[in-house]
Amino acid sequence: MKNIFYYRFTAVIILVLVLMLSACFAPPEPAAPEEYLTPQPQETEAAYDSTVNMALVTDDYVMESWPVIKKLYGLSGVKANFKTIRPVDWTDTIGRIMSSGEGYDFVELDSYSAYVYNDHLLDIAPYLDEYAPDFRDWALSWPSFASAYAYGQPITYFPFREDSNIFMGCAFADASLRNTNILTLNEFKEFMTGKQLMFYGSTRELVQLIAPYFGTSDYWYTKDEQMIYGPSSDEFREMLKTLNEFYSAGIIPEDYEYSPPSRTEIGAADNTAGVILGTEDDFEWLYDEGYSPVMLNFSEDAYIPSYPLEPSKTGGIIAGTGNEINVLKFINSCFSEDGRALLNYGEDKLHTLSHTDGSIEYLVPFSGSGDYQWKEQGLTPEGLPGIYYNSWAKYDEALLNELIDMRKYLPENGFLVPSSQIAYTSYLPKQIVRDSVENLQYEWWTAFIKGEKSLDWDWGEYLSQMESAGCMQGYLSSRFN
């Protein structure tokens, strides 16, 4: 009996050993699918090497949780926390940040604030080559930056936008001029026979969009190193004479003083509009209607209607935080090839769809109605406010290329003067004086264009009334110079 029990016990032990040994030599289990082995993005700050705090001036907002923003962090290994400051609150907020510290590593600045708080800012020049070469290469197109870099001067504040001059508008001509991208004044008059010049708005919008083609402006600009107030200049007077000719010839509609959008849309659809003065929001639908960008070369100083260089679109890194290099790394990632593509076009198959022919298809909700449909997917149309943007990223390749051709007609940096520098002779609040001046301008410009006032006999009275309203060329020139 004992022997039987012994043999059975021995057999069980042997069986256990066999099973254990067979397990050791068994083929391995199939590997998990690759996507489960790939490290997944972490939602915590521990996933990034460093974190920086940035104060941006914008009416928009930035969500650190947006897919595009999180992918941007991966390019530099630096996570950015954003404080967005409304422009109307900027002066008070920036003063508090700079005087108290408040834990920010980067702030948007204008040149005046950069001067006032210069001792608080890092000189980035010694660190650009090592930590921010992509940003350096882009910023060298900015004259003041390039000069400081070339001569070894301190760089405590720096440009922080892609375009120093953005199109305010552009003239679009009908399909018969598809292969023509420039019209002289005489060519324009001949082409417009039986057609009309159309635009949205009133006399002010007409003058604002067409004055640049005559080499002038409805505001301030510089010429031969002198500050010129456009509405009192000889070039502006000649422009009004030409607009009066257009009005008399029927090129400008008789009741043009208020042109609703519907009129322009109908004119484009039935081809009665030979040339349309469009703003940036109009470019796409005009192109879809067969109209294409054209330069109206009405003067040797003609330029594309543009916004002036805004001094607030610069930035500075606060010194002594210990995060200076991390800020530079993050900024550099925004201006790298991958960063620029990400901020402008988003992620492939999420925001856009790249085709083999190189074209890009924008996916909904960006292509839907509304200015900020991409916010639902984590990207604003202009990219990340305050850092890098390309306001033309939304256009298809054909239109984009034609607009790029127009960029050669942008004015030089410093040609146009930002409205924030406006000055008047009156001690009344600026807005009251500005409204008074603009109302006078509207009345006089309309009268000149319609021939109700003479540019030969009434020009002096126009200038006199402008001066009485609180706007005088001599005084304003002295303030600027």
Description:
The structure is a single chain. The chain has 4 domains: 2-36; 45-163 and 310-354, D-Maltodextrin-Binding Protein, domain 2; 169-308 and 398-409, D-Maltodextrin-Binding Protein, domain 2, CATH 3.40.190; 423-480, no CATH class. It has 19 helices and 14 strands. The protein has helices at 2-24, 34-37, 67-76, 90-100, 111-116, 128-131, 133-139, 143-150, 185-191, 203-210, 234-248, 261-269, 283-288, 324-335, 337-345, 397-406, 430-450, 459-468, 473-480; strands spanning 50-57, 78-85, 106-109, 158-159, 169-173, 182-184, 196-199, 220-223, 226-229, 273-279, 292-297, 314-317, 352-354, 360-362. A 5-stranded mixed β-sheet has the order 2-1-3-12-4. Helix 3 links the parallel strand 1 and strand 2. The protein is globular, with a radius of gyration of 31 Å. Mean pLDDT is 75; it is low at 23-46, 368-390, 420-428 and 474-481.
State the main characteristics.
D-Maltodextrin-Binding Protein, domain 2; disordered C terminus; 19 helices; alpha/beta; 4 domains; globular; five-stranded mixed β-sheet; 481 residues; single chain
In short:
This protein is of the alpha/beta class and 481 residues long. The protein contains 19 helices and 14 strands.
Largest sheet: 5 strands, mixed
CATH class of the largest domain: Alpha Beta
Unreliable stretches covering 5 or more consecutive residues? 23-46, 368-390, 420-428, 474-481
Number of helices: 19
Any idea what the CATH superfamily of the largest domain is called? Answer: Periplasmic binding protein-like II
As a percent range, the share of strand residues is 5-15%
Mean pLDDT: 75
Q: Which fold does the CATH topology of the largest domain refer to?
A: D-Maltodextrin-Binding Protein, domain 2
| Radius of gyration based on Cα positions | 31 Å
Query: In the CATH hierarchy, what is the architecture of the largest domain at level 2?
Result: 3-Layer(aba) Sandwich
Q: Looking at the chains present, what oligomeric state does this protein adopt? A: single chain
Cα distance spanning the termini: 121 Å
> What's the overall geometry?
globular
- How many individual domains? 4
